[in-house]
């Protein structure tokens, strides 16, 4: 169908609108299916279609243009006599993209709020995974209609019967009701579009009420400022309105309203049930926050849609430039990133060992990895990041409470109680690995909350775990112990009191703040031994002997020694070539300039990088 004849934004009857999203575990084919739908609905023609149209962050960056397609409007005509029994006619489908990772659960929940149905996509060769479940629970909490779909049925290893039964059991339908697709070959995708029309409830809202729209994403664009994605619930938003953000009462001039199909298309207004974008000239995403309600300034709504939450960082780490001269660049870079990332926080910090840097707050490990990666790649910075830590609440003997986001701020002595954040974790794995997973969780101070068999040989285990144990190498260990078969998802779930201590690492009797860590008392010794051992290997020998100690307060719990030596760079230079000798000595001097001095001990930056690399990135699935 030609897009010109498609229903126009602003005057679309809500009864022909269908708002849906696709939820899936990483790699189960979400992007491929989305691309296929764009092609079939004629929004992107096959020739112009490049793989993964929705995933165009990189392309955008290269060309420095426009907008991330967070929500695409697709016209779809249901033919007469379709096998699905959907009412023939032309419909407007809005496909809303959801970020794929636990760090962004709140953003996911807002995107889901903007939909009426969710396609639960499962790989027919893999079955249900942890994120399938996590996303499904979020979708059920948002009251969405679930459409179960098995994808990749073209794969020789697909086991349609087994996984259709598993999926049906999970969703509570008959195995025959599970739809089958191959996003790759296109099989089943037309039927799926008809099913979406048939099964998704049309949006309901009051067209005559004051405007209310939910912000489900906001993105900073270099040229246009902040682009805010909204789903209109009541009334309409027009480009002539001045709009108000209900959480802050801030009023903004509206410059443009439109829909994405798949490029931005201006519209005069968008009405009940529609999904589109607003541009207001605001330059900072923090003024247009995900979860907030937009209304018009005049005769605006008095009650917001609810559910707005301020993003709170869960993980903190220090970021330091390896070259101290890069400090201003790092500051500017963080300022720029924050324009596009309402959840990123930072404040200046100084470390005795690393110099000037920033204490940054992140939603989780993946968020931290992404941010660091972008700083290094987009701003050409070499960074040292200190080991990430969670936020501890420390009650002192005198009744005061402090929040510790940096181990070096941990109060010495007089601590009455320390509370640490806890997560509820869901682990899915083949049942053969139950023993090894239990062992790992026990080691990480986990408590088993329950266990269910999803099928004969797959099990779901639910644990509560201290978040501080997960931010280290938990995910990596889980993967290696289960040969990659386990999947993990977790969400924050309150605090608990714990017996935690601060372990300091001392070089020649001087504490190195970058290596301090808050750990469970039982793990303190092994942390001390591990760190001292690592540093012994990483720090080059000096002209004098260097003791490395790990200590809790004044009590030393581990010790290593680096023996003295002077590296004679001239050793191989017999004969009398004075200029060559001078060159070598200068090279040595230049190398020394880059060293970080801890007291009189010279430590190469690489030693910090390697010593702090105890943490591993979390599952890299949230790139969208
Ligand atoms: N054989 C086959 N491969 C598929 C099918 N759908 C997707 N794939 C492949 O599976 C891989 C993952 O697909 P994506 O669409 O990137 O998966 P995704 O869920 O969007 O993954 P992320 O973007 O990483 O979250 C790609 O290599 C696809 O080509 C299918 O129906 N059949």
From TrEMBL:
Gene name tied to this protein: lepA
Localization: Cell membrane
InterPro entries in alphabetical order: EF-4, EFG_III/V, EFG_V-like, G_TR_CS, LepA_C_sf, LepA_CTD, LepA_IV, P-loop_NTPase
Membrane topology per record: Peripheral membrane protein
The UniProt record lists the keyword RNA-binding: no
Family the entry assigns: Belongs to the GTP-binding elongation factor family. LepA subfamily.
Binding site for GTP: 27-32, 151-154
Keyword Phosphoprotein appears in the UniProt entry: no
Organism: Nocardioides cavernae
Function text: Required for accurate and efficient protein synthesis under certain stress conditions. May act as a fidelity factor of the translation reaction, by catalyzing a one-codon backward translocation of tRNAs on improperly translocated ribosomes. Back-translocation proceeds from a post-translocation (POST) complex to a pre-translocation (PRE) complex, thus giving elongation factor G a second chance to translocate the tRNAs correctly. Binds to ribosomes in a GTP-dependent manner.
Protein name: Elongation factor 4
């Amino acid at each position: 169908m030609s897009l010109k004849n498609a229903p126009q934004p602003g005057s679309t009857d809500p009864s022909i609108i269908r708002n849906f999203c696709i939820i899936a575990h990483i790699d189960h084919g979400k992007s491929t299916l989305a691309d296929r739908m764009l092609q079939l609905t004629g929004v992107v023609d096959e020739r112009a279609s490049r793989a993964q149209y929705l995933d165009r962050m990189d392309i955008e960056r290269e060309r420095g243009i426009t907008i991330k397609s967070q929500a695409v409007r697709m016209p779809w005509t249901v033919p007469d006599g379709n096998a699905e029994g959907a009412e023939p006619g032309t419909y407007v489908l809005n496909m809303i993209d959801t970020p794929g990772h636990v760090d962004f659960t709140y953003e996911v929940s807002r995107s889901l709020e903007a939909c009426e149905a969710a396609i639960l996509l499962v790989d027919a060769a893999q079955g249900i995974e942890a994120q399938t479940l996590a996303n499904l629970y979020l979708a059920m909490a948002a009251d969405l209609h679930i459409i179960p779909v098995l994808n990749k049925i073209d794969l020789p290893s697909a086991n349609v019967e087994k996984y259709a039964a598993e999926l049906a059991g999970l969703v509570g339908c008959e195995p025959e009701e599970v739809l089958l697709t191959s996003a790759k070959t296109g099989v089943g995708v037309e039927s799926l579009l008809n099913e979406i029309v048939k099964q998704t409830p049309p949006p309901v809202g009051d067209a005559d009420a004051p405007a209310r729209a939910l912000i489900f994403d906001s993105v900073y664009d270099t040229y246009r400022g902040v682009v805010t994605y909204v789903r209109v619930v009541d009334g309409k938003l027009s480009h002539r309105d001045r709009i108000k953000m209900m959480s802050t009462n801030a009023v903004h001039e509206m410059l443009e309203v439109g829909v994405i199909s798949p490029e931005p298309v201006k519209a005069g207004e968008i009405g009940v049930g529609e999904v589109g974008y607003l541009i207001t000239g605001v330059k900072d995403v923090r003024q247009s926050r995900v979860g907030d309600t937009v209304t018009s300034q005049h005769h605006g709504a008095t009650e917001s849609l609810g559910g707005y939450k301020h993003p709170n960082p869960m993980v903190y780490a220090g970021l330091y430039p390896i070259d101290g001269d890069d400090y201003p660049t790092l500051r500017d870079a963080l300022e720029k990133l924050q324009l596009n990332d309402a959840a990123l926080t930072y404040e200046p910090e100084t470390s005795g060992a690393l110099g000037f840097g920033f204490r940054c707050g992140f939603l989780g490990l993946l968020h931290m990895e992404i941010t660091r990666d972008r700083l290094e790649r987009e701003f050409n910075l070499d960074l040292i990041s200190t080991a990430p830590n969670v936020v501890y609440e420390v009650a002192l003997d005198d009744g005061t409470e402090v929040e510790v986001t940096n181990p070096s701020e941990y109060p010495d002595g007089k601590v009455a109680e320390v509370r640490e954040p806890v997560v509820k974790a869901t682990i899915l794995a083949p049942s053969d690995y139950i023993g090894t997973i239990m062992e790992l969780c026990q080691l990480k101070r986990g408590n088993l909350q329950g266990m269910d068999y999803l099928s004969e040989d797959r099990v779901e285990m639910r644990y509560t775990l201290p978040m501080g144990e997960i931010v280290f190498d938990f995910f990596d260990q889980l993967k290696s112990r289960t040969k990659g078969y386990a999947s993990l998802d977790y969400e924050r779930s309150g605090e608990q009191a714990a017996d935690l201590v601060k372990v300091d690492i001392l070089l020649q009797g001087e504490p190195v703040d970058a290596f301090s860590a808050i750990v469970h008392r039982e793990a303190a010794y092994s942390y001390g031994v591990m760190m001292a051992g690592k540093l012994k290997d990483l720090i080059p020998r000096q002209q004098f002997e260097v003791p490395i100690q790990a200590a809790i307060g004044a009590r030393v719990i581990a010790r290593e020694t680096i023996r003295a030596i002077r590296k004679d760079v001239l050793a191989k230079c017999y004969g009398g070539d004075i200029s060559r000798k001078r060159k070598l000595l200068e090279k040595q001097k230049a190398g020394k300039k880059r060293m970080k001095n801890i007291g009189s001990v010279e430590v190469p930056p690489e030693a910090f990088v390697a010593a702090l690399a105890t943490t591993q990135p979390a599952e890299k699935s949230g790139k969208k």
